[in-house]
Amino acid sequence: MTETASTPTAAASAANSARKIAVVGSGYMGGGIAQVLALGGARVALADVSAEVAQSNYDRLLAESDQFVADGLFAAGSTEILKQNLWAAKDIEEAVADADFIEEAVPEVIAIKHQTLARISAAARPDAFIGSNTSTISIAELSEPVTHPERFLGVHFSNPSPFIPGVEIIPHAGTSAGTVGAVRDLVHAAGKQTAVVKDVTGFVLNRLQYALFHEAAQLVEQGIATADDVDTLVRTTFGFRLPFFGPFAIADMAGLDVYNFCYKSLQTDFPERFATPKILSDLVEAGKLGTKTGAGFLKVPAERTPELIAYRNKAYVAMQKLIEDLGPAPIN
């Protein structure tokens, strides 16, 4: 289930301004998350292994914000908002004592996370929501030291968090629906988009990301293409579409019967790796072939296909112009 929010609206920021948040772990990821939430209107405490580290990262975030404003990446006045809403706590206990929501963003080591979450849980209000920014560790496993684990879930921001709009929300089996709803509202108030996924290994974001990387690495290892050529094909073909359409929308527009045929072709050499997904073959057998039949994964009505195609074409031309205006990435 996905919900979206673009930039924080005045109403959303006003609603968020009453909220007190703590971010535990003030490094690159935690600091960026704190910037996002503070710019969204919340009062945000930074905590780390010491008061000195938290203060140093607070100072860094303000200097970083000044540079982002100068570069046109943050709105004018952003640093002043951060000075009003962001503060460095002397320790975890002070940061979380009165927080409505706490985001844990310490290193991806379960022992460190368990120790940190135990401290958070002991010092926070019993009704405070607690999230972890883990990208790989089971949320159920992380919940073990948390009292009232129904208030705990994964809240996975992506790097760099000030500029990547999506946040993965991962409840464990015991997370309450109220926790999920409240945390989504908080994230939306900061201008982010959320998707709720199940607590399985890799969640969704990394299962997709690493599946692509695994196949790309094999192509290079087998001498089929260079790393540069693989990157070129990804960013100039199917990757070019991804800012606008996810894999199911792309499949619907291409035609699910076409996808079904392509799977059969791929199975000539890779019968197991590219076995046809049952969800796809079931739709094809039912005559639901995507936009051309008005039913597929996303059930776009056939009469809206011309409107969709017009949007697609306009989006791709705009993307190409953006790339030309930015110039090539300074990689090679």
Question: What does this protein structure show overall?
Answer:
The protein starts with a strand and ends in a 6-residue tail after the last helix. With 332 residues, it is α/β, with parallel strands linked by helices. 49% of the residues lie in helices and 12% in strands. It has a 9-stranded mixed beta sheet, with helices on both faces.
Secondary-structure map:
Elements: E1 2-3, H1 10-17, E2 20-24, H2 28-39, E3 43-47, H3 51-70, H4 78-85, E4 86-88, H5 92-96, E5 101-104, H6 110-123, E6 129-132, H7 139-142, E7 152-157, E8 166-171, H8 177-189, E9 193-196, H9 205-221, H10 227-236, H11 238-241, H12 247-254, H13 256-266, H14 278-285, H15 305-326
Parallel strand pairs: 2-3, 2-5, 3-4, 5-6, 6-7, 8-9
Antiparallel strand pairs: 1-9, 7-8
Helix pairs in contact: 3-4, 13-14
